């Protein structure tokens, strides 16, 4: 977090730039020199990033004859990638048409575009509690007022949403949700709640910002239709997607699927922002998709992430069975741990770091700091043996904190 420079003529909206505890952990951990088991960032397993295939694609697509790959390109996205993306989505629940697709710089730019197009200062924006606070921070950067609605094992609590909106006496302009393998809880919104959420959004005329980066990483249970699919092309559903979790986050390539009537506005917004998404990165992703690598890659990843989740749950049972409970996601990257006796997870963090394990404290997922005794663990980035070591370290840190 930064303090605002007092002497500069900053725009009022600069006070809404709240930063990201989640992202700041990347720099914090980069500066540590001792051995740390890293459960903090939501990164894919380093071994799962297909570096060999990507570098082979790069050698061709970005080689000496590929000067055009380093030029400016179409704002809506490189045609090679849009074509490959359309084929990838064909036959999935997110099948779509090219006039709905805009390539973005990761999922974050999709969230920014959604808020840029729909959120005025003072507008009410619903966020989940806990939520992915980089999403709520985007709404705050457009001076939204947030309404935090609880999430339970079946996702966003739509009964509570309805009653909180009634109590607020005004309808939300937007509803921001991560419906599948939510970040941070790992929960997925039930089918019934998905339908009810869309009904409420239609009744209120609210845009649903459907942020679903983990949906393709299901390793257990039955697939659920996405909000995009259930919306059947409803212009109120604005879907944000990314290759960060399924290929590699450093590429910064994602896409939005939005009503065709927004197409030109999205282009205009991007033209006032970054003109075009990074073209070499788009070519790498296009080559990966066109080469038919994604499906096999996902099969391997899903199996490995299941192994890692099970290892983490077994270690939690061994070391935390007496003092905490945790979620049981059917996909994605995260477990959410809630202490039954108060353990202040922000105070625990430096102790855990010294002990050699990192996580994100629960309050980092709550604009109103509602989760002081919870924490998020990413199981995806760490192999099972190291997971077991990290969870044992975490328990030692809890005991040390209690003894202080
Ligand atoms: N939404 C959610 C729920 C996420 O977990 C993330 C990444 N942590 C993003 C959006 C941002 O994705 P990207 O890195 O592609 O910007």
From TrEMBL:
Residues 68-394 form the Aminotransferase class I/classII large domain. Pfam families: Aminotran_1_2 (PF00155). GO terms for molecular function: pyridoxal phosphate binding; transaminase activity. One of its GO terms (biological process) is alpha-amino acid metabolic process. It comes from the Bacteria. Keywords: Aminotransferase, Pyridoxal phosphate, Transferase. Its cofactor is pyridoxal 5'-phosphate. Belongs to the class-I pyridoxal-phosphate-dependent aminotransferase family. Homodimer. PANTHER family: AMINOTRANSFERASE, KYNURENINE_ALPHA-AMINOADIPATE AMINOTRANSFERASE, MITOCHONDRIAL. This is PLP-dependent aminotransferase family protein.
């Amino acid at each position: 977090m930064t303090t605002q420079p007092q002497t500069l003529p900053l725009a009022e909206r600069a006070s809404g730039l709240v930063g990201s505890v989640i992202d700041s952990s990347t720099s914090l951990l980069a500066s540590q020199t001792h051995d740390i088991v890293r459960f903090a960032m939501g990164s894919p397993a380093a071994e799962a990033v297909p570096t060999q295939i990507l570098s082979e694609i790069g050698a061709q697509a970005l080689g000496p004859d590929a000067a055009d790959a380093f030029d400016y390109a179409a704002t809506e996205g490189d045609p090679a990638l849009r074509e490959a993306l359309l084929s990838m989505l064909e036959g999935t629940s997110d099948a779509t048409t090219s006039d709905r697709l805009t390539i973005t710089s990761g999922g974050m730019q999709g969230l920014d575009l959604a808020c840029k197009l729909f959120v005025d200062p003072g507008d009410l924006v619903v966020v989940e509690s806990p939520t992915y606070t980089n999403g709520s921070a985007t709404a705050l950067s457009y001076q939204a007022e947030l309404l935090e609605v609880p999430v339970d094992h079946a996702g966003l609590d739509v009964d509570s949403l309805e009653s909180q909106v009634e109590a607020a006496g005004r309808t939300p302009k937007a509803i921001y949700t991560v419906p599948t393998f939510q970040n941070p809880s790992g929960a997925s919104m039930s089918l019934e709640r998905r339908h009810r959420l869309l009904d409420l959004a239609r009744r209120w005329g609210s845009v649903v910002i459907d942020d679903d980066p983990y949906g393709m990483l299901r390793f257990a249970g039955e697939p659920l239709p996405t909000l995009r699919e259930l919306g059947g092309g409803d212009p109120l559903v604005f879907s944000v997607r990314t290759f960060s979790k399924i290929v590699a986050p450093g590429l910064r390539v994602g896409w939005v699927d939005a009503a065709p009537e927004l197409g030109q506005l999205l282009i205009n917004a991007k033209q006032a922002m970054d003109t075009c998404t990074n073209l070499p990165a788009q070519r790498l992703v296009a080559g990966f998709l066109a080469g038919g690598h994604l499906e096999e890659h996902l099969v391997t990843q899903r199996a490995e992430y299941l192994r890692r989740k099970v290892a983490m749950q077994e270690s939690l049972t061994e070391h935390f069975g007496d003092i905490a409970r945790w979620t049981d996601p059917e996909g994605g990257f995260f477990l959410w741990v809630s202490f039954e006796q108060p353990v202040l997870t922000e105070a625990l963090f430096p102790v855990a770091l010294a002990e050699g394990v990192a996580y994100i404290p629960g309050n980092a997922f709550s604009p109103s700091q509602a989760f002081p005794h919870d924490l998020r663990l990413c199981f995806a980035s760490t192999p099972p043996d190291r997971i077991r070591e990290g969870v044992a370290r975490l328990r030692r840190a809890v005991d040390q904190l209690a003894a202080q």
